[in-house]
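Notes to self after the Tuesday call (sharing in case useful).
The group wants a holo model before anyone commits to mutagenesis around the pocket. I volunteered. Ligand is pyridoxal-5'-phosphate. Logging inputs and output together so the record is complete.
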Amino acid sequence: MPRTSQRTSVFTESLIREMTRVAQRHGAINLSQGFPDFDPPPELVQAGKDAMDAGRHQYAITWGAPELRRALAAKIGRFTGVPVDEASELVVTCGATEAMIVAMMTVCDPGDRVGLFCPFYENYSADAILCGATPVLVPLHPPGYGFDRDELRRAFASGLKAFVLCNPSNPCGRVFTPAELGHIASLAEEYDVWVLTDEVYEHIVFPPHRHTYFSSLPGMAARTLMCSSLSKTFSITGWRLGYVCASADVIAQARKVHDFLTVGAPAPLQHAVVTALGLPDGYYAALAEKYARSRDILLGYLDQTGLAYIRPEGAYFVMVDISPFGYASDIEFSHWMAREIGVAPVPGSSFFAPGENRYIRLNFAKRPETLHAAGERLLRLRA
Ligand SMILES: Cc1ncc(COP(=O)(O)O)c(C=O)c1O
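Result:
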C-alpha cells in the first residue's frame, strides 16, 4: 500500500483526550481533559430542545446563522470595546478548535513560521504542522510564566508569519498584563506579524487579574484573528461552537477555509446559543466566582500534599510539579496516578517540546463534591 502522509506522522494523538479514556478504563476521577461535570444553564438546554422542535435540522448559512452572528457581534463589541460587523467580520466554527486551524490556514502558507509560547495548548503545534508551517517556541519561565523580551524578539526577528497568543493561558493559567500584551503588539507591528488569539477562557479570570482583549490594543484589531468559543463560557464543550472574528478582508478568506473544512457548525445549536448570549453580564461575573471557588478547593488539597504548583490567574487548570516522585516519564506517572490514586491528570509533556517531564496538569471545572472526592484521593500523594 502507498504510505500515509509524512505530515500526519510527525505528531501523536492528543494526550489530553487519551487521558479521558485512561480515566474511564480505571474508573478514576477525570481531572484531565478540560470539560465541566455540571450542566449548562437550564434555559440554554431548553433552547436546544426548542431549536430541535422548531425544525432547525438543516445546514445553517456556512459562516453562521444570522441571529447568532448578530448576538456574537453585540457581545464581542460590548466586552472588547471594538465594534464588530456581524455581516463581514465573523465566521462561526465548530469550536475554537476549528477556529484556530481556520485562522492559521487563512494566514499561513507551507514553509511559514508560527510563534507559540511554551508551554502551549497541544493543538497549536499540530495545527501548524497541518498547515505545513513550522512552530517556533518561546519559553514562558516558571514560576511566574513570564516571557523574556529578548527571547521573544529573537523569535519575531526569525521571520514569523503569525504568533499564537493563548490568553488566559492553558495550561499555565497566565493572564497576560496590558504591558506584556503591549510588548507583543509592538513586536507584531515592527515585524508585521499576524496575531492569532485563543481567548476561550476570556470569562474565567481570577481577581485581581483582568482579561485584556488583544484586539482592543491600539492598532491591533486589523492584525488580530480573535478565536474564541462558547464551550467554556456556557459549559457546552460538546456543542462545538466557536468563532473567528477579524477584519472583513481576513474573514472573507477564513470563510472559504471553514466552508471546505466543515461547511458549518451544528445548526440547531447555533440557534439555541443565542439565548445564552442574551444572559445578563452578571452571568459572566458569577461564572468567574464559581471557578474561583473551585480553584480554591483543589489548591487547598494540593497545599496539604506539599506538592509545588503554579497558582492560576485564569482558565481552569493547575500545573503541579511531580519531580519529587522521580519518574523519568510524566506519562508513566499519569497512568500510575489514574490507576493507583484514582485521579487522572494530563502529563505536562503534552504542552512542551520533548524532554520536559516535570509536570502534570489538573483541571478544576468540576462540581465541589467531585473536587473534594478527588482532593481526598490526592492526599495519598503526600506519602
Ligand atoms: C486553550 C484552548 N483552546 C481551545 C480549546 C478547545 O475549545 P473548543 O471546545 O471550543 O473547540 C480548549 C479546550 O480545552 C483550550 O483549552
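Two things stood out.
DSSP finds 13 helices and 14 strands in the chain.
The CA atoms of residues 207 and 313 lie 8 Å apart.
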